[in-house]
Amino acid sequence: MADLEAPLVREKRKKVWVDYFVQFRWIIVIFVVLPISFTLYFLTYLGDVWSQWKSYEKRQKEHDENVKKVQKRLSERNPSKDGLVCTARKPWIAVGMRNVDYKRARHFEVDLSAFRNILEIDEERMIAKCEPLVNMGQITRTTVPMNLALAVVAELDDLTVGGLINGYGIEGSSHLYGLFSDTVVAYEIVLASGELVRATKDNQYSDLFYAIPWSQGTLGLLVAAEIKLIPIKEYMKLTYKPVRGNVRDLAQGYIDSFAPGFGDEDNEMVPDFVETMIYNPHEGVCMTGNYASKEEAKMKGNTINSVGWWFKPWFYQHAQTALKKGEFVEYIPTREYYHRHTRCLYWEGKLILPFGDQWWFRFLFGWLMPPKVSLLKATQGEAIRNYYHEMHVIQDMLVPLYKVPDALEWVDREMEVYPLWLCPHRLYKLPVKTMIYPEPGFEQECRQGDTPYAQMYTDVGVYYTPGPVFRGEVFDGAGAVSRLETWLIENHGFQPQYAVSELDEKKFWRMFDAGLYEECRKKYGAVGTFMSVYYKCKKGKKTEKEVQEAEQAQLDTPQAEVDQA
């Protein structure tokens, strides 16, 4: 790694009008985005309360009626005249950062906006049955008072069940349970033909079950999912431990904070939750959490920290205090811990509102936070959107655990983005090869954190403005993302598809495996009805002709072209 030691030399960059608009964008956020966001959050909350008042029987009846509407709508489509099927959701509503440009081409809309109910909490089977627009805030408000939770609860309130399944979802418990989609036991899917099917890992639709994750809704329309529940306690006992050294030392400190030796997954020292934040090339804080009862939390001498109050310091800054005062332990109410990054959107809130972390703002206006990501996107315009693509990074790098030191060195050299978020997750060896899969033969290497049935991976979250941009230097954002993607392909890593991507189709199918996905596309009639996952994620506008030619190529060939080089 000697070639990474010398810093890159970059030229100074001249400011343009967009720089000043971005610098003072907080004015629009304060007077427009935050008030509207708060109103929408409140209305959504009232809708969730109204839904909870309904019996499960009534919710299921409404669900069945809404499914029939979807089926009827699909039956109205004329394949020779109408475009490919898309949901009716507006492009800016998606939480992801990539442009939803595929909806600029002619398309046939199906409205799924009514699918936002929790249909059942089955305490005997330990299953939550949810519609795709149920979000994490809604599900935790229902389950946490019952001392239950989804096995993987993504941190941000607005993230939905459908997005976490069709796209990507992770949390600090993923080192035990895998990604969000790994905790699903059944999907209800409306196929291109209008047929409603229930896919599980051991029924006749098992191939569809394994193909749904990461497919971005291009195999059928998800209308419900049955998701694993686990028992929890009222508090999270969280330990903050500072780590120092070079980036490789920080990476090893992170690995040692939770990962046992090969196959030792039953080690009692493995925590319930894990995350690490790297604040600069020489300092980070490792956090490990274990569920604790309220009796334990309230014992004399223990510290309880309700981080969910609007006036509290932003969580990433609170964790950073461990660098000054050393290792410490505190108890956080479980639901507040789950959503610890919501109020400040990890640390993106500091860019959106430069003074948002100040005590006076938190006390006076913190109750308005966070701004809805969808509204931030809706108010940014084309020029601002392009600016962020070049001058800002929001990417997740999913890499094998043992390659985290290399990944941190790469990010430090190429992007200089801090803080960084590290969160481990299991990548299971499944009966079939899915779009993402462990390294072949990983179980023979007996590496730290791995088991015979799963390889330990890590999400390296790269979210912020790169150092060169802060210093006023030239930064090629598209080039940096392209190099990141190449690095991931060469190191058996993966890039979640919510992010902006520079991959062409050949490289896309080098990163992901096309086999099972393309088989299901053809078997279940998705080709010619739903856009393929590459064209749905592809950067830039998708013309109708471009999409049709790609679809026809899939019909004419046995499988998507995969670069074997």
TrEMBL record:
Q: State where the protein is found.
A: Membrane
Bilayer topology reads:
Single-pass membrane protein
- Domain of life, per lineage: Eukaryota
Give EC number(s), comma-separated.
Answer: 1.3.1.72
Q: Which GO cellular component term is one of those annotated?
A: cytoplasm
- Protein's GO biological process: steroid metabolic process
- Cite the Pfam families for this sequence: FAD_binding_4
Protein name, as recorded: Delta(24)-sterol reductase
Q: Which UniProt keywords apply?
A: Lectin, Membrane, Transmembrane, Transmembrane helix
FAD-binding PCMH-type domain ranges (all copies): 53-232
Question: For the region Disordered, what residue ranges are annotated?
Answer: 546-565
GO MF term (any one): FAD binding
